[in-house]
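Thread: Newbie trying to understand structure tokens

Hi all, I'm a second-year student working on a class project, and my supervisor (Dr. K.) asked me to get a predicted structure for one chain before our next meeting. I've only ever worked with sequences, so writing a 3D structure as a token string is new to me. If someone could post the tokens and maybe explain what I'm looking at, I'd be very grateful. Here's the chain:
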Amino acid sequence: MSESRQAKCASCETELALDHQGPCPACGGTARALSIYVADTVSVKEGFETKHKDPSGFVKGWTKGHTKVSGKTKRQAYEVLSFDRSDPDFTRKVHRVEEIDEEGQREVVHDEDVRYPAKRRPGKSKKEDETWPPNRGS
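---
Reply by user tm_fold:
Sure, no problem. This is what the structure looks like when written as tokens:
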């Protein structure tokens, strides 16, 4: 945060030192106008999260996307993580990170698209399915 202070004569607007005593040297006025300017930077982050459940409550898909600051380069970045469990034989994970370069263009720095054996096993209870995806913190 930055701050600046300014003192002026209220009559003729001549700039004065903050510690000036006595009348204005330009017009003789004694009223002062004091201004304090404060500035700060605010970062706005955006994001979304979606879940797709079938009629039984089984989570078939989950996607989360958000803006962030990259840990390595400290550049602004956009990250999307998605799991697709619609196929009973495999789970698909898609993880993509794009950083914003100096020219304002998106640059892909991580692009992962992998398949894993299905997480849902026969006989798994509905309650266990509702806890997916696991809460690993944000």
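A couple of things are worth pointing out once you decode it. Residues 47-130 form one domain. The chain is about 5% helix and 50% strand. Feel free to ask follow-ups in this thread.
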